[in-house]
Amino acid sequence: MIEIAKLIIVAFILIGAFFHLIAALGVIRLPDVYTRNHAASKAATLGVLCILLGTFLYFYFIHDHFNSRVLLGILFMFLTAPVAGHLLGRAAYHSGVKMWGQNGPDDYKEYIEIKKSEKYQEYEAYRKKIEENIKAESK
Q1: Sequence-ordered list of residues with C-beta below 8 angstroms from that of 15, at least 6 positions apart, any chain
Q2: How many whole angstroms from its chain centre is CA 135?
Q3: TM segments (predicted)?
Q4: Which residues does 82 contact at the CB level (< 8 Å), separation at least 6?
Q5: What is the DSSP string of 90-114?
Q6: Is the CB of residue 46 less than 8 Å from the CB of residue 19?
Q7: What's the angle, vertex CA 80, arms to CA 90 and CA 69, rounded to 5?
Q8: Would you kindly state where each structural domain of the chain is located, as residue ranges?
Q9: What mean pLDDT value characterizes the chain?
Q10: How confident is the model at residue 116 (pLDDT cuts 50, 70, 90)?
């Protein structure tokens, strides 16, 4: 049983190292900030999760120690790393960093232009007025 656990532990750690290698190659080779950010956030997150899972299994099966801190680290990475990657990409976009020419259409630019339009501002003012009237009637 211990030998099977050791093989699984080694597999998780090697898979995690492989994901880190892919993340490093993606950061070096990809053409723009957005694709590099994608490589770093996705592959590195999976790499850290696999390595932490291998660490948790190591302590659990080899040393008979249930380490809840490692599980909390896995949960923390699983929740925060994708959000951080998204926010970094969004900050780069809003600061004016250009996309690589072959990324495809920029749908978010159209959305921002619609939100800044005069018609949309009128719609938002009208919607807020209706919400205020509904609140006033319910009181």
Answers
A1: 47, 50
A2: 38
A3: 6-31, 43-62, 68-89
A4: 41, 42, 45
A5: HHHHHTTPPPPTTS---HHHHHHHH
A6: yes
A7: 165
A8: 1-104, 105-138
A9: 90
A10: confident
